[in-house]
Amino acid sequence: MRFMLMLKGDPPPGAMPPPDLVQAMHEYDVELEKAGVLLAAEGLYDSSQGARVIYAKGARTVVDGPFTEAKELIAGFYLIDVKSPEEAIEWARRCPVDRAIPPGADWEAVVEVRRVADPADIPTINEEQAAQAEKFRMGR
């Protein structure tokens, strides 16, 4: 089963993570890799460098960042392949996101765990769509 671990938050514009956080996340990456569960991992720039395309009332509107609700934003993600939801949650518990919180700050660190849908899980998908989705997933 594939799961996405979404690291919630939005760093201040232009801020880079402190060295101890970078080291802790690197060590976590290595743990995931050694366990054979890591499929992908990426950090994201702050929302000031992003945009949203909103579709409402028959129109598409582009809204440039930054966005205000930091706890609703994704700062990075891990894509893992594990045997159960419990294993995915255990890996999320081990993620060192707490290192992103400055001492004394009134912030929270959140790792959201979501199962990735496989084409086979969608009853309305046809064989051609399933094959195309698998081809895309495999990077071809």
TrEMBL record:
Domain of life assignment: Bacteria
Residue span(s) of domain YCII-related: 1-99
InterPro entries registered for this protein in UniProt: Dimeric_a/b-barrel, YCII
Bilayer-crossing regions: none
Record Pfam families: YCII
Family: Belongs to the YciI family.
Protein name per the record: YCII-related domain-containing protein
